[in-house]
Automatic annotation (TrEMBL):
GO biological process, one term: mitochondrial RNA processing
GO terms for MF: RNA binding
All copies of domain RAP, residue ranges: 741-801
Keyword 4Fe-4S: no
Nucleus among keywords: no
Keyword line: Mitochondrion
Name listed for the protein in its UniProt record: RAP domain-containing protein
Cellular localization per UniProt: Mitochondrion
One cellular component term from this protein's GO annotations in UniProt: ribonucleoprotein granule
Superkingdom as given in the UniProt entry: Eukaryota
Length: 811
């Protein structure tokens, strides 16, 4: 009842002191003997009916129905009666005056007649911010008990969104399954129904690909009718669910571009800027920026914030626009919430914007919020924002405030605090020479609470919610091992729903846990029919990146590929490229997959998608395609796929050519001594197919070094690359019995984080160099920097043993 008083106090007062003139009508309703008498009273008194009379009328109608032999037939007759619609509308308008018990009874009766009305009730509660109220819980219970009988997906989708905050995981899955069953019953034009289903999936944080894919088809078939607001909402939902539809983005980009000249109002144009900007081409981006600059004086604080966020995503370097938007942010700075101040700080730092006045005021506001804040997540984001500003510092008061909330923090908050503390230590000039004891003690407490939280965790799903987005040095150094131990303890809970997420976590952390990877492979083999093909790339990735084969290697990769075959034509191009590369790393080449990638139509489609990507991701995709092309040419020449990356590689080699690091310079000098002079070794050698190797030397058949003489390539000069494969073999131009040796210094990036196990990319490079005719010697950093090689003589002996010793290429 309190919630109703808060919502509408005036109406409540009216209700409390209403005279008892309605009592005779209630008596007359209770004396009615059939539905028609009730409907007659409604028709004659609809203008004056109170909430109690509406509830009484509904109750009487339901009592009559329960007495009938053919309940279903009579319910349909009642539902179709014109006065029932009147009663329906009255119940909706009188809802806020009903007490909780009356409302529950009304909701129960209404759903017996019309699920549509129940969905409208749920929307009314949601509009009044009552998503967590007991009443919404009652609606959820009604839906749960009647789920099998609901056949209207439009109404069900409304209810799903309304009750999504209250329901269990089991009920969530039941609703997802029901929506999937009913999807074929809706018309392909029902965009709003599809959007609500995606919204429900976003609310429950479940990227259920079968439903997302079907909803996406609805959006694609109606893309020419979607307005800016619909496109913006759909793309925002997709972003939250990490669901990527290249086709939808490409089509909506065209539609949004056509809208650029149509909007001259700031609110609409800001939404267009935010939606189109991150995927716009150079010409569209120029139009967007010039127009937003012209209307910048009219922007509100929230609109300026949205524009700044979009510019960060666009990696914009338009200093004039950045300065203008920053001035608007400064004007409205006092009105922003803490989380918005964090977003502003992050954007300003990313865009390299410097304004002492703005940063000083930003710091003052963050500090003022921090003084009064008691919520752990809010304190963590405020401290995070402060640590990003110039000369960050944590005084005793702030440290005490952080320590006070640590017992209430989840892993995300703890990670945020630790990252902020480390940032302060790194960038505050006071801390450069020594770290104050209080900061160190705080880090120790963060470690303690983090480990404690992991050790107490008893649910994989709860653990996953906290660790899925964790990153940074503190987590990797302090909690990663304990996190993996916890995952191993709970790994029986890995299933088709969470398997892709757990696999992604392992890939991201570079932590090789064979028991976890074996469990992932087992789940794929046992539950592959329930795993959507879109999840296969994430599942394969840790096996590829960490250079690990599960016990049933061929069956595992074969099952993954078989599951994907029917989707090869509809997977996003970049995902297909990453998938092909990941499999090639593990020496697994699918002819069907390679044919799907290496054809003119696919490559043209990929070029179109590259235009939509940020520069860093664009370049990553191009490199992966080149590396896949190289792997296929070297390992599967029978497929006759041509090498077409000469120009790309030459451009990158010229751009990325760099100097040797300290360890490489040491090795270079010692190699010259071991081999007999500088003319016996080449540094930074470019091989056929554009691998760069640290050092190269040639030994004759008696293991004697052969000098390069006048043919020694100048450092940085590109050797000629031949098109014929037989000319790619390094030994084809050597004296009989001679061999080329490639020496590679491997730093920590070449190995798994927890053990000295070579990662997939480095293992593939070794394999390819051997195909090219090299004898490969890999020098791990942990050997070169070990106590066993602490002197120059030790290292010289090590190099002699590796180069002149008997045996095959060692790793």
């Amino acid at each position: 009842m309190l919630r109703l008083r808060a919502i509408c106090p005036f109406s409540w007062r009216v209700f409390q002191f209403r005279p008892f003139s309605f009592e005779p009508l209630l008596i007359r309703m209770n004396k009615c003997t059939d539905e028609e008498q009730i409907f007659d009273l409604i028709e004659k008194n609809k203008a004056i009916l109170s909430e109690k009379q509406v509830a009484c009328a509904l109750s009487m109608l339901w009592q009559f129905q329960k007495q009938k032999i053919s309940l279903l037939k009579n319910v349909e007759c009642i539902r179709d009666h014109p006065q029932f619609l009147t009663l329906h509308n009255l119940a909706t308008t009188k809802m806020e005056f009903m007490n909780d018990n009356t409302l529950v009874n009304v909701l129960y009766i209404i759903q017996q007649f019309d699920i549509n009305m129940l969905s409208k009730f749920s929307s009314c509660l949601a509009d009044q911010h009552l998503c967590f109220s007991p009443l919404m819980g009652k609606i959820a219970d009604i839906v749960n008990r009647n789920l099998e009988t609901i056949q209207d997906l439009r109404c069900l989708s409304v209810l799903m969104v309304s009750i999504s905050s209250l329901i269990s995981q089991r009920f969530q899955e039941q609703l997802v399954n029901k929506a999937e069953q009913l999807f074929d019953t809706i018309d392909s034009s029902q965009v709003n129904t599809a959007r609500r289903i995606v919204q429900f999936l976003r609310n429950i944080k479940y990227s259920y690909y079968p439903l997302l894919e079907r909803c996406n088809k609805v959006f694609l078939s109606n893309v020419n009718h979607l307005d800016l607001d619909s496109i913006s909402k759909i793309l925002s939902l997709y972003h939250s669910l990490q669901f990527h539809s290249f086709e939808f983005i490409l089509m909506t980009k065209k539609r949004l571009t056509e809208m650029i000249p149509l909007f001259d109002h700031p609110a609409s144009f800001v939404k267009l800027f935010v939606t189109l900007g991150p995927v716009a081409g150079p010409e569209e981006e120029k139009q967007l920026k010039s127009t937003i600059l012209l209307m910048s004086e009219e922007l509100t604080g929230q609109q300026a914030l949205a524009v700044m966020g979009a510019m960060e995503e666009m990696e914009s370097r338009n200093s004039r626009l950045i300065k203008k938007i920053a001035s608007i942010l400064y004007k409205h700075l006092d009105n922003y919430k803490p989380v918005e101040l964090l977003r502003i700080t992050q954007a300003l730092i990313f865009l390299h914007f410097q304004s002492k006045e703005l940063l000083v005021k930003l710091r003052e506001l963050l500090l003022s919020y921090l003084k009064v804040s008691v919520i752990p997540s809010e304190i963590s984001l405020l401290v995070c924002a402060l640590s990003m500003l110039p000369s960050p510092r944590l005084d005793e008061a702030k440290i005490s405030q952080i320590e006070a909330v640590l017992p209430q923090c989840d892993l995300n908050d703890l990670n945020s605090f630790a990252t902020s503390v480390l940032r302060c230590i790194q960038y505050d000039p006071m801390y450069r020479n020594n770290t104050p004891g209080k900061q160190l003690k705080l880090l120790q407490k963060l470690d303690h609470y983090g480990r404690q939280r992991l050790q107490k965790c008893s649910s994989l799903n709860l653990l996953w919610e906290e660790v899925k987005s964790l990153k940074g040095d503190w987590f990797a150094d302090s909690l990663l091992e304990e996190t993996v131990v916890t995952l191993q303890r709970l790994m029986d809970e890995i299933n088709y729903i969470n398997v892709a997420g757990i696999a992604s976590f392992i890939s991201r952390t570079n932590y090789l846990s064979t028991s976890l990877l074996d469990r992932i492979a087992s789940v794929v083999l046992q539950q592959n029919e329930k795993i959507h093909p879109f999840a296969i790339l994430a599942i394969i990735l840790p096996f590829s990146a960490l250079n690990y084969d599960p016990p049933q290697r061929d069956e595992f990769f074969g099952t993954c590929l078989q599951h994907l075959n029917s989707y090869l034509s509809i997977l996003d191009p970049l995902k297909l490229v990453f998938l092909g590369y990941s499999l090639a790393t593990r020496e697994y080449f699918s002819e069907d997959l390679l044919k799907a990638i290496f054809n003119i139509r696919f490559l043209a489609k990929l070029d179109s998608q590259l235009e939509l990507l940020c520069s860093s991701l664009n370049m990553k995709v191009q490199f992966r395609l080149m590396e896949l092309n190289r792997a296929v040419c070297l390992e599967c020449p029978e497929y006759q796929i041509p090498w077409f990356h000469d120009r790309f590689c030459q451009q990158q080699y010229k751009k990325d050519f760099g100097s040797m690091n300290g360890a490489q310079q040491q090795i270079y000098k010692m190699l010259a001594e071991v081999l007999g002079g500088i003319n016996f070794v080449k540094a930074s050698v470019l091989t056929p197919y554009y691998y760069t190797i640290d050092f190269e030397c040639i030994l004759d058949k008696r293991k004697k070094p052969i000098p390069y003489g006048s043919h020694n390539t100048t450092l940085g000069k590109l050797p000629k690359i031949h098109s014929e494969l037989n000319t790619q073999i390094a030994g084809s131009r050597l004296p009989p019995g001679a061999e080329k040796i490639a020496l590679e210094f491997l730093d920590s990036r070449a190995f798994c984080r927890n053990i000295p196990h070579l990662k997939g990319k480095s293992a593939m490079k070794k394999r390819h160099l051997e195909i090219l005719g090299y004898h490969v010697i890999q020098i791990p950093h942990f050997e070169w920097n070990s106590m066993a090689l602490s002197t120059k003589n030790d290292r010289m002996d090590y190099l002699r043993e590796r180069i002149f010793g008997e045996g095959k290429s060692s790793s």
